[in-house]
Amino acid sequence: MPTMSNLQLIEAFSQIIEAQARIITEQQKALHQLNAVCMEEEITAVRAAYSGAIGSGEIPED
């Protein structure tokens, strides 16, 4: 396997994370349709950490 530069690694990981985020969002929508709520406190904590890392107002709307 060829060695990847740091920039290539960041790009590859970013694509993986974006795909995981889409999957999780669709799972959350499916749970919401069933009136199932799961891990609300964890979601709130991660959103707060995300905002702290990149600044407020940057979280995509649900």
Mean pLDDT comes to 85
Q: What is the helix tally?
A: 2
| Low-pLDDT ranges | none
The global form is flat
If you had to describe this structure to a student in words, what would you say it looks like?
By secondary structure, the chain is mainly alpha-helical. Helices cover 69% and strands 0% of the residues. The N and C termini lie far apart (38 Å). The mean pLDDT is 85.
Summarize the structure.
The chain has 62 residues and is mainly alpha-helical. 69% of the residues lie in helices and 0% in strands. It is flat.
Record keyword descriptors for this entry:
single chain, mainly alpha, 0% strand, 62 residues, 2 helices, flat
Q: Helix and strand layout, with pairings?
A:
Blueprint: H1 6-33, H2 40-54
